[in-house]
Structures are given as structure tokens and as C-alpha cells.
Amino acid sequence: MLKRLPGRRLLAAAAALLIAMTALGSALAAQPAQQSLLGDRHKALGVACEGCHAQSAPTGPAPANACVGCHGDIDKVAQQTQALQPNPHESHEGDIPCGECHHAHRASEDYCAKCHQFGFKVP
Are 120 and 88 within 8 A, CB to CB? Predict the structure, then answer.
């Protein structure tokens, strides 16, 4: 007959908790990290809606040239990303509008991935 050990229930509870925490940690690690949207990132930096939309209560997308006011034209942006090979801002398709990749209120996407597999992570 087994003797009852003091704290046996406590030990069993601690083991169950450890197993549950390990399983939860594995499940959380398997989920991709949620990236904040560009609109949220701009807001966190103090850029109000009208900073991009030119309206305090936007009724549609920001004008196509809204990015250039702060970030510069495509040549300036290409200089800033020249360490990336290939440089995503020097496209063989010419000047691609910023909004083809960078979206403020939904997840951004890799325009080049329609044909290529460079693995760009687009903010």
C-alpha cells in the first residue's frame, strides 16, 4: 500500500500547471506575430488622419502622392533601401505606386511576390 506523501496534491497540481503552460507556450509560438498596420504606426508617431488623407474625417483613400510629402520620392526611398537585394524600390516595372505594397488600414503585401519569391517583409 502506498503511503500518502505530504504535498502530493500540490505536486500533482504543479505538474499539471507546468504541462498546461508548456502547451500554451507552444500554441502561442506557432501563431504569427500580429504586425501593426501602417495607420496605427503613423498614429503612434503623432500623424493625424489628415496628415495622409488631407481631410480630418477621411471619406476615402489617401491621395497617391501622400507618402512623398514625408518619405520622399521613389528615388529617395530606393536610396534608403539600397542594401536590400534586389531593391524593392527599383522595379523593372518602373515606378510602382506606394499603395501597391503599403496599405495603411489592412495588411501590406509584397507586390513582387506575384511573380517572384524574394521574401520581402513589407511594412
Answer: yes
| Residues 2-38: tens digit of each pLDDT | 555 556 676 666 566 556 566 555 544 444 444 589 9
The C-alpha atoms of residue 79 and residue 27 are separated, in whole angstroms, by: 40
Contact 107, 36 (CB under 8 A): no
Task: Judge whether 104 and 38 are in contact, CB under 8 Å.
Answer: yes
pTM of the predicted model as reported, rounded to 2 decimal places? 0.67
Fold of 34-114: Flavocytochrome C3; Chain A, domain 2 (1.10.1130)
Nearest to 41 by CA among 105, 117, 100: 105
What's the CA gap between 119 and 29, in Å, rounded?
Answer: 21
